[in-house]
Amino acid sequence: MALQEVCGFNKFSYLYSEWNISASASVYLEDTFFSFHNRKNTDFGGFFTGSNGSPLELYVPVAEYLKESPLQFGQASPNVTPQPTAKPEYCSLPSLPFPAGIPLSASSSIPLPFQLSHGTTTLAFQFQGGVIAAADTRSSCSGLVACPSSQKILPIHSHLVGTTSGTSADCFLWKRILARELRLYQLRHHRRLSTGGAAKLLSHMLHPFKGTELCVAATLCGWDQNLCGPRLFYVCSDGTRLQGELFSVGSGSPYAYSILDRDICWEMSVDEAVALAREAVYRATHRDAYSGNNVDLYHITAGGWKRREREELKEEYYREKEREREKVAERRRKMEKADGSKCVK
Amino acid sequence: MEYLIGIQGPDFVLVAADNVAASSIIQMKHDYDKMFKLSEKILLLCVGEAGDTVQFAEYIQKNVQLYKMRNGYELSPAAAANFTRKNLADYLRSRTPYHVNLLLAGYDETDGPGLYYMDYLAAVAKAPFAAHGYGAYLTLSILDRYYKPDLTRDEAVELLKKCIEELNKRFIMNLPSFTVRLIDKDGVHDLEKLPIGAK
Known about the structure:
The complex is a heterodimer of chains A (345) and B (199).
Chain A: H1 2-6, H2 21-26, E1 47-48, E2 60-61, E3 122-127, E4 130-136, E5 139-141, E6 144-147, E7 153-157, E8 160-163, H3 168-189, H4 195-206, E9 217-224, E10 229-236, E11 241-243, E12 246-249, H5 253-263, H6 270-287, E13 294-301, E14 304-312, H7 313-343
Antiparallel strand pairs in A: 1-2, 3-4, 3-12, 4-13, 5-6, 7-8, 8-9, 9-10, 10-11, 13-14
Chain B: E1 4-8, E2 12-18, E3 21-23, E4 26-29, E5 35-39, E6 42-48, H1 50-71, H2 77-92, E7 100-108, E8 112-118, E9 124-126, E10 129-132, H3 135-146, H4 153-170, E11 178-184, E12 187-190
Antiparallel strand pairs in B: 1-2, 1-10, 2-11, 3-4, 5-6, 6-7, 7-8, 8-9, 11-12
Helix pairs in contact in B: 3-4
């Protein structure tokens, strides 16, 4: 595997001989090209391994059904023919009502025990002072607020934070798996993997589950010492991996984008950036039913991440109403004064 | 929603792709590069389903580079196109097909320039000009009308501008900018992004 060779890992292959079985089986020296064998999930006695079975790959002991086609995963009756083209559109932007009325389980043969939670507003952007990541805290479950104070921004290590969107359980699990893999990488190679590398790792780990019900849409916000500083990546379980300066994910993301696109600029101060992120989440929670309750804010700099106090948005709503009332009263007073001065000639 | 176009001249190939990376109704990135450099004189343009594009294109890219490392010389564009098509065909008949539409453009020392059109059903066709996406419906007749086999580089860029004008006029999606590249015997050259002045 390319990453292994680059890191000089091959010298340890004798220690992990049982994981390298597939690697030796699939490298045919007669063949000119390296076959991408493990797309077919070969049998390894109950362990699910990605391509080549190297130690850097995911090692999760799971039940037998994961050895079969990922399209069959989760189906009650295994004889149902999979539809490879019916990949659910919603995974990239959960609970958005476009296109008209796609149900949350795109193939009718999969009976879900309950509706999975998909609504959220998360955003992240970089500016001269680092990276800001903000999210709401509402976990919804088909119209019911399952938890009003969930944590949607999870720190992965001291200089990397990930926002979560999609299925909460999947996001939490995969963040932990990513944290473990990054820690192992750090121990083995004596340096931290860059944000881009972490994004690529997560993307490749999620790839075998494409086409299943797994839904993870995360933005990884980090600071790389050896590269240019702040870094922001969007990773989705449908395979998208984008590097950028501003991302917002979730059902409330269009509302957040419209606030952020107007006022964002690289030269903002930290206070301005924090205020903008708060405002964007607040407006999104106001309009989106599946986002709400509180706002969490993390600020990542060269010295690591800092967590801002969780803030209730209900208070913000009442404060804004109060400000509006005062402005209206002020305007009325000014008009009365103007009228009064006109009357008194 | 995405758009690719390629125009082959007597000694060059001009290719362009839009720069939008979209997710449902949101444009997540405005400067996304859909071209993958397979070798010094071969470009692979790839659109289609979200994760499949990058996965498949990077797989082909790494294998072409591996061939060069193993054998000391590069694959020709025709060989690269056929290799890509074979992989698409093999995965099409597996449980995990790749839903990608491709244009492969390259320059060969002996055969000259070549433009290969490939689609997700693993069809391949060597064509003088080609386009992918909904925008192709609007621009193929322009290409049919104004294309000449011996067009110069400037004429090719003018033809490309005509196509983009038509897209801006009639296509329902907003595609604000296009990356444009030209391949000839000296390799891959980056041209100015179109429309002129687009960021």
